[in-house]
Amino acid sequence: MAGSPYDPSRAPVAYGRRAVPQLFSELQQQEAPRRVRALASLCDLLRDPERISCTVSGGFLEQLKVLLKDEDSIVRAKTCELLHLLTAHRIGRQALLSSSFLPHLSELMDDSSSSCRRNVQRVLNRLTLMPAGAEALLTLVPKLMLKLREEEEDVQVLLLSTLSSCSCLDPLPALASDGVSLLLHKLSDSSTDIRREAAAALMALSVCEDGMRQVCEKEVLPVLVNLLRDEDVEVQANAAGVIMYAAITNEGKQQCLDLDVIPILLSLVSQDGEEEKDKERKKALVMYSLRALTALAEAPQGRCLLLEQLPLLGRRSEAAEEDQDIRRNAQNAVRVITWTPCNTGDL
Amino acid sequence: MAYVSPTKRDQNGSYTFSSRPRPVEDRSKYREAPSEQTQSNYGNIMYDRRVIRGNTYAQQIIPTTALPDPVEVQRQQEIRRRNVAAKRAREQCRTRTPEALQGRKHIDVQTDLYLEELSDVIVASDIECQTDAFLDKPATPLFIPAKSGKDVETQIEEGELFDFDREVPALLEVLVGKTVEQSLEEVMEEEELAGLRAQQRAFRELRNNELEEVLRLKEQERRRSKEKERRVAQQKEMLRKEREVAEKIAARAFTQQYLADLLPAVFTSLRSHGYFYDPVENDIETNFFPWLMAEVNNSLEKRYTARALLDTIIDDVAQKRQEAFKDTQ
Q1: Which InterPro entries does this chain map to (chain A) (predicted)?
Q2: Most buried of A310, B42, B163, B174 (most Cβ within 10 A)?
Q3: Is there a contact between B175 and A1 if contact means CB atoms under 8 Å apart?
């Protein structure tokens, strides 16, 4: 418990309103151990949103900026942890963005202590919960991509998650820093989390034309088809997402058909052996697979294959299907497959 | 007094005094007569410059001029000189006792009613006083006041002050409560964040879904419009070619028709211009006929000449006959 005199790792906490200001004045002391203790107490206190609003409105954030440049690495790591707690609430996130912490945080990404770097990545990850935060981080995307090559596994997961949030807003910076090749490398990593986040980031990147083109050129599709057979549902879903975007272009359609991806997608869409609790998690997977099939049905070879499989899709598009989105997707797919030129009004 | 610097008059006429710090000299009680070296001028206090005159509420501040006015300086010097001169004059004019006659000496005499013994030696007596040495004092006895009031005693038995079962729950509640509160806050925070992330994820899924549809339809539209353009262009090309072919056919037909009777016409015109000729006929025409004609002409010429001759002869004859007739008449 914070502030107990029997806890040597924490500074004593004043009562009520004085707690936070007193701890911040303690932070200005010269000796590093006292600062570490004060930071530990602050970490305990700032779980409470009222304390956070007190910190933000009291203007103590400037002091934290100074502490970020402290010589002691424990102090820096603890300060980043404190910022991480601040970002748990909207006030904190907004305050961080408006006080221009980003340059300092980007400097700290090159810090020597790994716990400090990890905490910085956690802060950046939480900042992307806000769209304004993701927008502000767009400028840091090239640096994040550089860091992706060097860091350890759990930090990589954080980095990839940050990157995918930023790229959802604007994929161009990541594409410019050669994101597709880097993410391709990460797709075949042994850790499930990394694969999942890399596939999600790739899906965000392949939304724009340039990304789709690069995905087709750089031979990403074979790896993705492998990922469709992965164990984790989310990895499968993200891989299906990338395929669905890539299959929009003609090149992508051709490559997908060459790789014989339609049976795999059909097996994902089929309903046999599905339990109730899986349906929720598999919703994204089924949706993306249906969309991918729709895109592939526009190619003549795909259409031939899919015309035979119409009953399967028909089952999904009936009223028996509870999920409205899946039903709509399946109906769409059926419509595209059975399209003939005389059906359409225009053209 | 040896360390006193002479009293100077400052340039403004203000008085300065400075002396080095010196320890206090021990003097005898009664002062000796002042030595001749002292320069202290005892003056009338009324005319002492050190005493401030007049209203002190608005004191005149000594003006700090770097260079005093030369006029001022000169005036001060003049005043000084005048004072000295006046003093010297006063000294000279002072009437003094006339000198003693030869062999005689002046002595001082007291003229008061009661004579005083004047001597340099001052009668002084020294008295000393010393306290006794401190005697050893025995220890003061302990002061025990007389007993008054009632004696009362009390004793705390075990278990009276602190009842474990009663006190500890309160403490424990606070400890456990604070810990649980803290952990609840942390859990709520994490839940909130997880909720945020889940919401974001759900939104992202739907967005991806719709976005894919949008992009696919856009691509489809692009493909179809490209296809349409290609077909339209193809059709235009085809029409153009057809038209060209039709024009060619029409041109051919027209030319054929135009040139149908070209050949006979050409032949006719050539023939009419004499390009096709029978060589015998031509030969006859070119060679024979002119000769024939020339011969005919010749023979006709001959005939004509013969006829002309005949004419002339006839004429002659007629003439002659006429003449002859006339003659006969």
Answers
A1: ARM-like (IPR011989), ARM-type_fold (IPR016024), Armadillo (IPR000225), Cnd1_C (IPR032682), RSP14 (IPR042856)
A2: A310
A3: yes
Taking the C-alpha atoms of residue B198 and residue B192, their distance in angstroms, rounded to an integer, is 10
Q: Is B44 exposed, middle or buried (0-12, 13-18, 19+ CB in 10 A)?
A: exposed
- Which residue in chain B is spatially nearest to A45 when comparing CA positions? B182
A287·B182 Cβ contact <8 A: no
Which residues of chain B are within 8 Å of residue A325 when distances are taken between CB atoms? 206, 209
What residues pair up with B19 in beta bridges, in sequence order? B4
Interface of A with B in 103-162 (CB under 8 A): 126, 129
Please, what's the b/e burial string for B160-189 (b: 16 or more CB within 10 A of its CB; e: otherwise)?
Answer: eeeeeeeeeeeeeeeeeeeeeebeeeeeeb
Residue of B nearest to A205 (CA): B208
Q: Is the pTM of this model over 0.95?
A: no
Which value does ipTM take for this structure?
0.81
Q: Is A248 on the interface with B (CB under 8 A)?
A: yes
**By C-alpha distance, which of A202, A163, A262 is closest to B208?**
A202
pLDDT tens string A53-103 = 888 888 888 888 888 888 888 888 999 999 998 888 888 888 888 888 888
* CB burial readout B253-277, b (16+ within 10 A) else e: eeeeeeeeeeeeeeeeeeeeeeeee
Measured on CA atoms in the order A172, A175, A179, A180, is the torsion positive or negative? positive
Contact B193 A129 (CB under 8 A): yes
Distance CA A287, CA A237 (A): 9
Whole-angstrom distance, CA of residue B152 vs CA of residue B247: 145
Q: Which residues pair with B16 in a beta bridge?
A: B8
CB atoms within 10 A of CB A337: 21
Summarised one tens digit per residue, pLDDT across range B8-60 is: 555 667 788 888 887 776 666 676 655 555 455 667 888 888 887 777 776 66
